[in-house]
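[Solved] Which block belongs to which protein?

Original post:
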Amino acid sequence: MKVALVTDSTADLPKPLRERLGVRVVPLYVNLGGRIYKDWEEITPEEIFKKVREGEAFPTTSQPSPEDFQRAYQEVLQEADHVLSIHISAKLSGTVQSALLAAQNFPERITVFDSQAASLGIGMMVLRAHELLSQGHALEEVLSELDRIRKDHFVRFSVATLEFLKRGGRIGGAQAFLGTLLGIKPILTLKEGRAEAAGRARGERKAREEILKDFQAWARGREHIRAFFLYGAEENAVRELKEMVLASGLPVEEALVSELGAVIASHTGPGTYGFYAYSL
């Protein structure tokens, strides 16, 4: 059985990579200044932040419609027997629901998987699924591995301001950070698909050190770790953290470095950086 992969644009996989792998990406949408833009296709994070600084209202985002997914599934199924559709956490977006509604039109030919993640947390699962399918693993084996990664992975990220997360209603327990003193950096994670507080530090350097300490605790006893680094608009925001992680002496390899797309950036704001990791 030939299984094709579909994901959504919040996986933040660079376009050359997803094209090389043959992964179909269904875009989410950004609403900015009364116009609707396709994520990763029609607007960049830099453009969003510039307009907000100039006084534009904060952007809003929306999921693909069931019709968007139906069109994608119809096209992909012309050359595949089955589709594995991997998407952003259902607690962050209605994307999974749209995919499930579309899947009803293709009985037993679509499997929708809620990553309970965002950005490269989705991307790393898509890449792992592609790797296993390319090696000839059955769909059931791939789903078992994705479920394992969903339950056991590491994620930490920091933002320059909580204002974007606050306005988008995506911060969950991270609300504890609101009103903190200038210079305090929030350290966030995702738990069961929602952004939650994981710590706080005074200044950038200390924040990176705290993230590294948390990662070292998680990585203890693991033999092969893949790390996926993300950043919003400026890659130098994540560069030092990446160097610290790779120089930690842990068995970790750099799997991918990618910029956040416009939808995720609309909720995290400028100056965001962090990484996901899982072990084999």
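(Second protein starts here: sequence line, then its structure tokens.)
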Amino acid sequence: MKIEHVLAGFLPDSRGHDGLALAVLLARQAEAKLTVATVQPPPWASPGPGRADESAWRAYLKEQATAGFDQARQVAGEQADYITRFNRGSGRGLVELARTSDVDSVVIGSGPRGSKGRISLGSTADQLLHASPVPVLLTPKGYAEDLPSRVDRLTVAYRRGPGCDSAVSVAVGVAAALDVPLRLVTLVVGANRARIEQQMLGNLREQATADLERAVEGRRREVEVETLEGRNVTTALAETEWRKGELIILASSESGPLRRVFLGDTSIKIIRAAPRPVLVLTREPFGSRQTLTK
């Protein structure tokens, strides 16, 4: 994965400003190009007298896009690129743009529902999380209201397997490019977790440490490892300290299509319970070498 070109999906509302604030933060820290995109419904294509209405509709869409970008420029500045795409679905429009451009990641805000500080998966996120060819960064609701000064740590939600091994390798490169520490957490979740023997938990911690050491072998970077326990994902994630500028990294489901984002049930639960932004990686062939450059 590279961080050379960040795409922010923008709407002129609080959701759009949350995602844009994070996209600007990431692009500046990685010294990357930033493109701000708004996806609008397709203009009407009415024949005959209906073309008058079509012209009015096109003028309205252009006016809305201009007003939205005026707001975005106050955050992203003139150095960013601003483009408009037309599609019946905003997520599908961003997927199409990601497929036809050189962007490395797509950043969006939370869906309209959900509580402050959490991520709600709306229709835009759903479309991106099933089809995006590049990683998707999801921003919690209200993120722009208390924006950190920089990304200050990456945490990989780790589950042993080829997909997560690849995710750890990617995270090592991202952490190096952003000059931030890296942490790996393993979740032990279940209503009957008290019955799990301490030896089993010890073995799990040892295995996670061994897996991580193998993933970062030969790299001069210290990596913290934690096992988080709880009766569900929410309580497990609450068992640790989260830095203000932290990003959580998730691997795509190993059963999903290659080179695309695709999530399983556990990953969706982590996203909904996450107290920080979540970067969802595309699924890569195990053993493939992914590079990151600034």
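Accepted answer:
You had them paired correctly. Confirming on the second one: The beta strands are 5-9, 33-40, 81-86, 105-108, 136-138, 153-157, 182-189, 223-230, 246-250, 278-280.
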